[in-house]
Design a protein that fits this description.
mainly alpha; Hydantoin permease; 19 helices
Length: 453
């Protein structure tokens, strides 16, 4: 184990940072639209099941790799004490980092949109009677320079946090904006539960009608379970490397998984009552947040405050996503390329800005352009989240199950004061060795057959 690695100062600090990583932009932007596209309750049931069975097990594995090795995901997957000179396992870590860069590049664009929408909400734009669907996002998409400026603002904010380090940057900021995010969600939830469409929305979300769920819905439930917990990017391996030695990993993983799942469900319970009250189709797609909801806000009492609170909440979620993706990449460049934190932060920011500018300057709208009936965001989701993340999770599971020595796994998993951990250990080992790899391979085979036929 490496010594001298920075650590979180408290469990609460880790909880807020890890919860911020898990409760990201995907919780509020992605979960509602894919749940709506896959029929609601059936998908929600499978998603919760996937988090409990697959996500939780892989989360323990990623945190364990980071905590034991004190390395980033690439360094942890090529730890010499376990694999010798073999470099094959590095592929999974590099694949996860590549996915981080791609997702970070378009997340910075979406985060820039959210900043714009916060400003528009504060100016009362969404309470005007002449507000029409998509007008704000369409006007923004026509302004390339403004989008690049918004991307730059978001990157500067993220850099200022990550560049200050684990304790002074990530942990301190998470202690502030994560409790604020929880309070805003409670406010929005209280508002949505009193809307006329709340009852229909709750039935849509929690009544499992599996007849409306396709085979690809099962695949997307697994992919989103990994995505919502920030698994497959290297972020949780990096966060695990900052944990104190006395931390009991299964307990931390359960807490993060439960909080993430609750917030994902709350996001649906905030958005779907608004959607059903306004008689909008729940499967409106990625444009739901930026085209449909801004028009709806103006139809409700307290519409100004609800719109402002919603987009501020959305930006906190976007910022937490960016911080975790940033840190996973920064940890790689610090560990493997021996850069300073400030140098690694600038490098990651520069690459992300170039990728984002390329996307914006292409003069295509990632909302409006479609490929085989799917928007660009949906295509990116399909290939990155439904393909890349499961492959990385497959590698992490097999590596943890077969390469990490059993005595180390036991030491990190078992708490002698907790009999349940002793009993669950053999089950968890079987999960990461056999069940999760088999399930992921089966899911990938379904996707390949679906793609071909």
């Amino acid at each position: 184990m490496r010594r001298g690695r920075a650590t979180f100062t408290s469990r609460f600090g880790f909880y807020m940072a890890a919860a911020g990583s898990a409760i990201g932009l995907g919780t509020f932007w992605r979960f509602p639209y894919i749940a709506g596209a896959n029929g609601g309750g059936g998908f929600v049931f499978l998603y919760v099941f996937a988090v409990a069975i697959i996500g939780l097990s892989v989360l323990v594995a990623e945190l364990m790799l980071g905590k034991v090795t004190r390395f980033n995901v690439v360094g942890a997957l090529s730890y010499r004490s376990w694999v010798g000179k073999s470099k094959g396992w590095r592929f999974f870590g590099i694949l996860g980092l590549a996915a981080s860069f791609v997702i970070l590049s378009y997340y910075t664009i979406i985060s820039g949109w959210v900043i714009h929408f916060v400003v528009q909400a504060a100016a009362g734009k969404f309470t005007r009677s002449d507000m029409s669907s998509g007008i704000v996002i369409d006007q923004l998409m026509a302004k390339t320079i403004l989008q690049i400026l918004l991307v730059s603002v978001h990157l500067i904010v993220t850099m200022s946090i990550v560049g200050r380090g684990v304790q002074d940057g990530i942990e301190k900021s998470s202690r502030v904006f994560m409790p604020l995010l929880f309070l805003i969600v409670l406010f929005l939830l209280g508002h949505s539960m009193f809307l006329p469409g709340a009852r229909e929305a709750l039935r849509f979300m929690f009544y499992p009608d599996f007849s409306r769920l396709s085979t690809m819905g099962l695949i997307e439930a697994v992919g989103h379970a990994l995505f919502s917990l920030s698994l497959g990017f290297g972020a949780m391996v990096a966060y695990g490397s900052y944990l104190r030695p006395e931390v009991h990993l299964p307990s931390e993983a359960v807490f993060v998984s439960v909080i993430d799942t609750i917030l994902s469900l709350c996001a649906g319970m905030v958005i779907f009552p608004i959607v059903f009250t306004a008689n909008v189709a729940p499967n409106a797609g990625p444009g739901l947040l930026f085209k449909t909801l801004p028009v709806i806000f103006g139809q409700f009492a307290m519409g100004y405050w609800v719109a402002l609170a919603f987009f501020v909440c959305l930006y906190f979620a976007a910022l937490s996503s960016s911080i975790s993706l940033f840190e996973g990449l920064v940890a790689y460049f610090m560990d493997e390329k021996k850069l300073t934190r400030s140098g690694a932060t600038i490098l990651v920011s520069g690459i992300s800005l170039v990728l984002a500018v390329f996307t914006v300057a292409s003069e295509t709208s990632v909302i409006n352009v479609t490929i085989a009936g799917r928007t660009m965001l949906e295509v990116a989701d399909q290939y990155l989240i439904n393909w890349t993340l499961p492959v990385v999770a497959l590698g992490v599971s097999l590596y943890t199950g077969f390469k990490v020595p059993d005595d180390i796994r036991r030491q990190e998993f078992i708490d002698e004061a907790n009999p349940a951990a002793v009993k669950l250990y053999p089950t968890w080992v079987a999960m990461v060795r056999w069940f999760i790899p088999a399930l992921i391979i089966f899911a990938m085979a379904i996707q390949v057959s679906w793609f071909i036929f």
